[in-house]
């Protein structure tokens, strides 16, 4: 399984989702590939925001070596599932989709809710970490409860 986490800047939320999912996948003994990207290009080549690095470190996860990149239409070919943080990310990614196959790969990470953008609010980084962690655990639990996954480790 190849999973891509997407937000606007690829420096706050999706790097957290990338690091948390990698951490949970490892704990679950799965060999999924996880990456992240942004729909905007302002921070390409940069590491995650220092506040995301700090909150992840607080929870024992090192995301400092990640590098910001832009979401590309080829990501639809590369990844099985593309998780976006909010409805604006959803619209931006769906705008690039070429067909129903591409569209079906894209969903909100929180199913029916959004992960708020913490860029202008320091107090949001901790709750954002917690909500992303919960979503990643739910995705793995859903997958692990799916009998069709047998043999796909
Ligand atoms: P992110 O947060 O989408 O969670 O990475 C943002 C980071 C940077 C900007 C906006 C949102 N920006 O405008 O530079």
UniProtKB/TrEMBL annotation:
Task: Please name one Pfam family that this protein belongs to.
Answer: LMWPc
Molecular function (GO) terms for this protein are: protein tyrosine phosphatase activity
UniProt keyword annotation of Secreted present: no
Phosphotyrosine protein phosphatase I domain sequence ranges: 1-142
The record's active-site residues are 7 (nucleophile), 13 (nucleophile), 117 (proton donor)
Keyword annotations of the record:
Hydrolase, Protein phosphatase
Top EC class per UniProt? hydrolase
EC annotation from Swiss-Prot or TrEMBL:
3.1.3.48
> Could you list the residue ranges forming a coiled coil in this record?
none
Q: Which PANTHER family match?
A: LOW MOLECULAR WEIGHT PHOSPHOTYROSINE PROTEIN PHOSPHATASE (PTHR11717:SF7), LOW MOLECULAR WEIGHT PROTEIN TYROSINE PHOSPHATASE (PTHR11717)
Protein family according to the UniProt entry: Belongs to the low molecular weight phosphotyrosine protein phosphatase family.
What is this protein identified as?
protein-tyrosine-phosphatase
Species name for this entry? Hufsiella ginkgonis
**Lineage per the UniProt record:** Bacteria, Pseudomonadati, Bacteroidota, Sphingobacteriia, Sphingobacteriales
């Amino acid at each position: 399984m190849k999973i891509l986490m997407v937000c606007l800047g690829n420096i706050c939320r999706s790097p957290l989702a990338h690091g948390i999912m990698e951490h949970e996948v490892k704990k679950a003994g799965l060999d999924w590939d996880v990456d992240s990207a942004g729909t905007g290009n302002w921070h390409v080549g940069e590491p995650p925001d220092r506040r995301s690095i700090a909150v992840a470190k607080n929870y024992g996860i090192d995301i400092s070596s990640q590098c910001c990149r832009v979401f590309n239409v080829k990501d639809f070919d590369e990844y099985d599932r593309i998780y976006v943080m909010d409805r604006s990310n959803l619209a931006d990614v769906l705008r690039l989709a070429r067909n129903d196959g591409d569209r079906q790969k894209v969903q909100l990470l929180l199913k029916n809710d959004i992960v708020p953008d913490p860029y202008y609010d320091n107090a949001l980084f901790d709750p954002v970490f917690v909500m992303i962690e919960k979503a990643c655990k739910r995705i793995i639990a859903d997958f692990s409860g799916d009998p069709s996954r047998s043999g796909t480790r």
